[in-house]
Amino acid sequence: MLLLPLVLLAVLFPAGDNQDAFQDPIRLHCIQISSFANSTWAQTQFSCWLDDLQIIGWDRESATPIFLKPWSKGNFTDAEVKELVEIFRVYYFAFIEEVQKHASDFQLQYPFEIQGTAGCELHSGGVILSFLTGALGKMDFLYIKNHSCVPAPEGGRRAQKFCTFIHQYKGILEIEDTLLYKTCPGYLLSILEAGKEDLEKQVKPEAWLSSGPSAGPGHLRLVCHVSGFYPKPVWVMWMRGEQEQLDTQRDDFLPYADGTWYLRATLDVKAEEAKGLSCHVKHSSLGGRAIVLYWGYSVSVGLIIAAVIVPCLILLLCLALWFWKRWSYDGIP
Ligand SMILES: *[C@@H]1O[C@H](CO)[C@@H](O)[C@H](O)[C@H]1NC(C)=O
Ligand SMILES: *[C@@H]1O[C@H](CO)[C@@H](O)[C@H](O)[C@H]1NC(C)=O
Ligand SMILES: *[C@@H]1O[C@H](CO)[C@@H](O)[C@H](O)[C@H]1NC(C)=O
C-alpha cells in the first residue's frame, strides 16, 4: 500500500526541471464558507483546491458541485460521484438548518460566518494526512484529531460544548471519518494520476519592464512584470551585475483564468542609480536559463533601430536610385 504513493511520487517528480511543480506536501482541501445574516437568511459556498488550483466549484442555484477540470472526478465511477454529490447536498441543506435551529444554544449572534476546511495532504515518502478545521468568524473553533472533535483553545467553552454535542451523532461522525480518512486519500491519488499531464505542464513566462509611480522627486520605481507562467514557483530579482537588490518588493501572485500566474517585482531607486540594473527571472519552464532584462536597454534598442537603421535604409535606397538613373542615362547613346 505504501509503495503505490512512492511510485506515484517518482512519476510526479522525475529528476530534473519540474521538481518544484508542487510544494511538499501536495494539499487537497475543500472550503466551506457559510454566512448567516439572520434567523431566516443564510448562504453557503463550497470549493475544492489542489494546492492553488481550484478543481471543484459549487452552483448555489442547483446546490450541486461543478467539476472544473476534465480530471476533477479522478477515477470515481458515475455511481460513486452521484453518491458523494448526494451526501454533500444533504449536508448542505442540513447544515444551515441545524445551525439556525441551535444558534441560540451556542450563543451565536447574527450576523456570523462559519468556515470549514477539510482535506488531506500527500507528503514526500507517500504518507497521507487528513485534516478538518472549523472556524467561527476569524477564530479557530475546533479541529479533528485522531478521529475525534477537539475544541480549539480560542473556541472556549462554546467549542467544548459543540464537540460534546457532535459526538452524539455517531452516524454523521462515521460518514465524516470515511470521507476524511478513506475517500480523500484515494481521491487525491487518483486526481494526481488523472490530471498528471495538466498538472505537470510547463508554461514559460513573458517578462517586460515599466516604470511605476515614483517614490518621490528624483526617484524611479522600476517594475518587472512576469506573466503567464506555470507552475507557480518563480524567482524574480532586480540585480546590479551579480548582486541581488534585496530591496526588491514582490507583489502577490495574481491568477489568470487559464491557471497561469502573474507576478511583479518592483525596486525604488534614485534616478541616477537606475542605469546598470537588470531584472532576472528563473522558472522551471526555462530550464537552467534565466530571462534577463536591462533597465533602459530595451528602449535604446528600439531607438537604435529607429535612429540608425531607418536612415541607412533610406540612404541606400537613394543611392541605388541615383546609380540606377546614372546608369540608364549613361546607357542612352
Ligand atoms: C435577513 O437578511 C437578508 C439578507 O441580508 C435580508 O434581505 C432580509 O430582509 C433579512 N430578514 C429579516 C427577517 O431580517
Ligand atoms: C486515537 O484514538 C484511539 C481511540 O479512538 C485510541 O485508542 C488511540 O490511543 C488514540 N491515539 C492517539 C495517538 O491519541
Ligand atoms: C482509484 O485510485 C486510487 C488511488 O490510485 C486507488 O486506490 C483505487 O483503487 C482506484 N479505484 C478504482 C475504482 O480504480
TrEMBL record:
Protein topology in the membrane: Single-pass type I membrane protein
Gene Ontology CC annotation, any one: lysosomal membrane
Transmembrane domains' residue ranges: 294-324
Occurrences of domain Ig-like (ranges): 185-285
One annotated GO molecular function: lipopeptide binding
Segment forming the signal sequence: 1-18
InterPro entries per the UniProt record, alphabetical: Ig-like_dom, Ig-like_dom_sf, Ig-like_fold, Ig_C1-set, MHC_class-I_related, MHC_I-like_Ag-recog, MHC_I-like_Ag-recog_sf, MHC_I/II-like_Ag-recog
Coiled coil residues, start to end: none
Gene3D superfamilies referenced in this protein's UniProt entry, alphabetically: Immunoglobulins, MHC class I-like antigen recognition-like
Xref: CDD domains: IgC1_CD1
Record's subcellular location: Cell membrane; Endosome membrane; Lysosome membrane
Quaternary structure, from the entry: Heterodimer with B2M (beta-2-microglobulin). Interacts with saposin C.
Role of this protein: Antigen-presenting protein that binds self and non-self lipid and glycolipid antigens and presents them to T-cell receptors on natural killer T-cells.
Protein name from the UniProt record: T-cell surface glycoprotein CD1b-like isoform X1
